[in-house]
Write a structure and sequence with these properties.
By secondary structure, the protein is an all-alpha fold. The protein has one domain. The chain has five helices and no strands.
Amino acid sequence: MVRQAREVRRRIGFVGQQASVDEVLSGRQNLEMFGQLFGMDRVDARRRARELLDAATALGVEFIPCQMSMDMFGIKREDLIDGMGEPAGAATAIEIMTEANASLFI
């Protein structure tokens, strides 16, 4: 594993138990941190996180934060990435996703 550390990291996914691995990081900062965990330097991770968010926004992706998750983890509106919509409950999110052509649940 030591000789192929990059390949091992590339093949392993990570899903945190909470909405954020580090409770003081914003959503954008978490994207940057995951980029660094997967081998990007800080500058590239920041650039790629911004590119991802910009591309999603340009494609009309609607970011809808989960109100229940926000409540459970103490996440405030100011902790969210720019462009987030109003927090929604599960029923509202399901309704929105049902009407959408594509959905991404994070």
